[in-house]
Write a structure and sequence with these properties.
By secondary structure, the chain is of the alpha+beta class. It has 2 helices and 5 strands, in the order αββββαβ.
Length: about 110
């Protein structure tokens, strides 16, 4: 395969080329749910980011606090759809008792 043919397959004129998408603002949140009587200590993290290929990706991670947990990624053509799912997931988690983690003081007395 000649070098020119390679450029036509993957270059900017290619039908497979995608327009790079920039996210207008960062979307990240980390929330936790704990209940000592039930031995429950869970976390849930959400982030919207751009992929290397210009797609919008909503990454979510969840599990027991102190572990890596599980991860899932959702890919979108536009930011609006990703933000819509982000907000829907946040509403569901808040209704189940998740809340932002409390700030821990770096200085101890």
């Amino acid at each position: 395969m000649s070098r020119d043919r390679f450029k036509t397959l993957v270059g900017p004129q290619s039908p497979y080329a995608r327009i790079s998408v920039m996210i207008t603002q960062p979307y990240r949140i980390y929330i936790e749910r704990s209940d000592r009587q039930k031995n429950m200590a869970r976390f849930y993290a959400l982030a919207i980011e751009s992929t290397l290929f210009g797609e919008i990706c909503l990454r979510r991670r969840w599990g027991r606090i102190g572990t890596h947990g599980q991860e899932m990624a959702h890919y979108f053509d536009n930011e609006r759809d990703a933000v819509s799912l982000f907000l829907d997931l946040m509403r569901r988690k808040r209704s189940r008792g998740y809340s932002p983690m409390k700030a821990v003081s770096a200085v101890r007395h």
